[in-house]
Amino acid sequence: VIRPEPCGVCGSRIRFGKAAIKCRQCQLLLHPKCREQCPSPCAPRPHHRAWPREGVLADFAPPTPPLVPALVVQCVTEVETRGLTETGLYRVPGMEQLVREWKRRLLQAGGALPALGSVADIHVVCGVLKDFLRGLKEPLVTFSLHPAFLRAADIPDDAACSTALRHVVSKLPPANRDTLAFLMLHLLRVSRSPDCKMDVLNLSRVFGPTLVGHGSANPTPLAIMEDTPRQCKVVARLLSLPPDFWRGFVGTEQENLVP
């Protein structure tokens, strides 16, 4: 190795002068000791070596549907594999330094993500997912549709509210819509786990600011105060929509999402 680069399996840096293994087809670079854990078959390399540090969701989405960023898929898969027995999932914070470090590693890796199995604390993985969504240039529901989501969630009649929300969800950019659907199905599974003690209300409080955010990049203090309870209401209402509605966006290609 001439220039230090992260291992495509474990994510830790391969240092200058050390031996490494590189795939001729997909250019995956890894430690010789990590060869046994090498993903197979080859995954095509992304066009760019690393993802941007910040951007809109579509900047991180794959070229084929469902348009859910690999980082989101990998975090969710890891959480569902070993986190559904953890109390306070998504509410208990992970160690901030580790969250920042793993988010940096994943963004640097682009499409060839290092495995998250080596992250001992599942709350760190949850933190990476939340931090990634919070760090987008605009929230998942987008600035332009933000008022429409708030209005739809405020409709007192459940049936009318559900119809309005479905309509607004369908207007989202494809990557935002698919990712929202993927996350809603995941959060419904978390809410059904008795060990997590995270019902729909708890999850909506955690994910309201993250998924719904505000109507602009620089909200006023008054807007922040007014938006907070309404953000939670939007997520709670979205989680009340039937799972089959969300599966309509990601269900048919679900097998493409497994890392």
Show unreliable segments: 44-49
CATH topology of the largest domain, what is it called?
A: Phosphatidylinositol 3-kinase, Chain A
CATH architecture of the largest domain: Orthogonal Bundle
Characterize the largest beta sheet: strand count, sense, and whether it forms a barrel. Answer: 2 strands, antiparallel
InterPro entries: C1-like_sf (IPR046349), PKC_DAG/PE (IPR002219), Rho_GTPase_activation_prot (IPR008936), RhoGAP_dom (IPR000198)
GO molecular function: GTPase activator activity; metal ion binding
Protein name: RGAP1 protein
Domain Phorbol-ester/DAG-type: 1-42
Task: Explain the overall architecture.
The chain is mostly helical and 259 residues long. It folds into 2 domains: 1-47, Wheat Germ Agglutinin (Isolectin 2), domain 1; 57-250, Phosphatidylinositol 3-kinase, Chain A (Orthogonal Bundle). It contains 9 helices and 4 strands, in the order ββββααααααααα. The chain has helices spanning 70-82, 96-109, 122-134, 146-154, 158-171, 174-191, 200-212, 221-239, 243-250; strands at 5-6, 13-14, 21-22, 29-30. Strands 1-2 form a two-stranded antiparallel sheet. Helix 4 runs antiparallel to helix 5. Residues 44-49 have low confidence and may be disordered. Residues 55-246 form the Rho-GAP domain.
Question: What does this entry show, briefly?
Answer:
The chain is mainly alpha-helical. It has two domains: 1-47, Wheat Germ Agglutinin (Isolectin 2), domain 1 (2-Layer Sandwich); 57-250, Rho GTPase activation protein (Phosphatidylinositol 3-kinase, Chain A, Orthogonal Bundle), CATH 1.10.555.10. Helix content is 47%, strand content 3%.
